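Batch 3, record 17
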Amino acid sequence: MAHPREVITLEAAVLRRWRGGDLAEMHRVVTEALPHLRPWMPWAAGNYSLDTAAEFLDLCDRNWHTGAAYTYAITVDGAIAGCIAMECRIGSGGLEIGYWLHPDYTGLGLATTGTAALVDEAFALPGIDHVEIWHDAANTASRRIPQRLGFTCVDRRSPSRDPRAGCEDGIDVIWRLTRPAQR
Ligand SMILES: CC(C)(COP(=O)(O)OP(=O)(O)OC[C@H]1O[C@@H](n2cnc3c(N)ncnc32)[C@H](O)[C@@H]1OP(=O)(O)O)[C@@H](O)C(=O)NCCC(=O)NCCS
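Prediction for the assembled complex:
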């Protein structure tokens, strides 16, 4: 089975596949970021235990092997700044990209440049001809990423697919980028 690269070097960051040794730092980063994530990410609603973090890293590892999802730490100078993933959730031929950042690392273009890099990885995989980003209609920071990268808004759906987080209005906005025809 073809997989994307495990390490992707960007101008200001490195995306790298999560590893078991990330547990303590990842748990600290998520715990610090919870108030910033809670409005938009249902999984951030409660406390984030070390067991939950370990389960997440295990799941990332298993999903990488099966191809169900490819999840990366976003790192800056070796420190964990956030997370970005592409997942098989939107049917055949497509991968969905999602992201979050620790608040100290917003406003730097990390989510946008990371998404652009994963789009390239996705289109290099056999059989992938489109990439989507799904966000809640109220999540303007998330919306700006597909907008900057030239995605097209293809649908709005209510009720939302996932459980609703604190500030969400329950409408999924779906953006798609289709692989350019190969010559
Ligand atoms: C969604 C989220 C990741 C967006 O973070 P962000 O910092 O706004 O996005 P980026 O990292 O792409 O940074 C973009 C900003 O950096 C600036 N920037 C600097 N260099 C840049 C570059 N090379 N490329 C693009 N933007 C750049 C942009 O102008 C923009 O600034 P602005 O916010 O003042 O307009 C963040 O708000 C977050 O973690 N939210 C909580 C979790 C969440 O909602 N996840 C998405 C669920 S669908």
